[in-house]
Design goal:
The chain is of the alpha/beta class. It folds into two domains: 101 residues, Urease, subunit C, domain 1; 307 residues, Metal-dependent hydrolases (TIM Barrel, Alpha-Beta Barrel). It is 29% helix and 21% strand. It contains 14 helices and 17 strands. Strands 1, 2, 3, 4, 5, 14, 15, 16 and 17 form a nine-stranded mixed sheet that branches. The mean pLDDT is 96.
Amino acid sequence: MTHDLIIRGGRLILRTGDQQADLLIRDGKVAAIGNGLDTPSDCPELDASGHWVLPGLIDPQVHFREPGLEHKEDLASGSLACVAGGVTAFCEMPNTTPPTTDPAALEDKLQRAAGRAAADHGFFLGGTEENAEALGEWESLPGCAGIKVFMGSSTGNLLIEDDPTLERLLRSGSRRVTVHSEDNPRLSERYAQVAEGTHVTQHPEVRDVECALKATRRLLNLVEATGRPVHLLHVSTADELQLVQERDLGDLVTVEATPNHLFLAAPDCYEQHGTWAQMNPPVRDVRHQEALRRALVEGPVTCIGSDHAPHTPEEKAKPYPFSPSGIAGTQTILPLLLTAVRDGWLTLHDIIRLSVDGPRHVYGIENKGALDVGCDGDVTLVDPSVTEDLPAKWLRSRAGRSPFEGRPLAGWPVTTVLRGAVVYHKHELVGEPSGSPLVFRS
């Protein structure tokens, strides 16, 4: 379905600078930017006076838990959290039950999303020892966001912990491979030493810097040997950032940061939020946080993903290390980045670079853009006057909690537009979910 819409009177955040102007969307695509635009008499209008007009964000790393774990989240509730936060497209990970490791499982997710997902979407295929060679053929299937590899921290057969199997996978196919980079043998050794009663504040020590650095070093060696591009997910250490820069493999290696590692720091986050700050890889101390913040501006961070990974309060209440890792986060990406703009270490144009252009480049996403004429008319309107503490009642994830509750806001997305249609407004879904599969370059 295509839509027409004229957004009037807002402050458009463009790559070339800010502009007080109108934005015209025709047949679901950005058609024109300017003042006094001619529009059909029946074209709906959206008043953006006093608002910032940004492109809809792309969240390239979410875990929406369907099928098999819908008590935590599903495609409907997770995508609702997306559009509530100004995110108009997401890429979902394969660690569901059963895992997404073949074309039939991928097609099942696409069918489940039809008519239920409120945002546009793609789904990753998970790499395994059994399917390593077949992925080169399957990666070009419609709706496939790419290949996801877990070098550590996974369940079932979604784990590739040895270099020969990983090399087989990297030599099969050409699209960028997305990697959770932690060394599983080291993780196993360290978890075996965790004593009963260990507090969650020890999580960054259990999954220490060397767990991440060792795996990333192994991975970069294989990238150099095979020439296969990879994307490092949720990098948490200053050491890995330094390693990527020292190895200088150019566009063969792209890097993701998460708001979790940018806006939380140990030990305070664990003392304040307990297991609600527990995730993999862990939130670390301020030294790593500051390095990640610098890397958003100076490199090598390419994009931001939420790593939205919700669990129920009952699950999170289990004692460490039996408490599951992960938090909800897709809805709070934009408000947190707006806070960084207020605090002076990011700009509004950095948000576009990291949350629209970055994911487009990394995953080869077609048709999306930063309010570019000809691209999908995906827009989020931000009210910069909303500066209250984040209320829990605004959150839409089934998790029901976030360590960012009560954090002072520096603006809030109040209206979300998907391909010219208003899909979320004033904390409510508008109309029926209308998300469609993303289109990726092969």
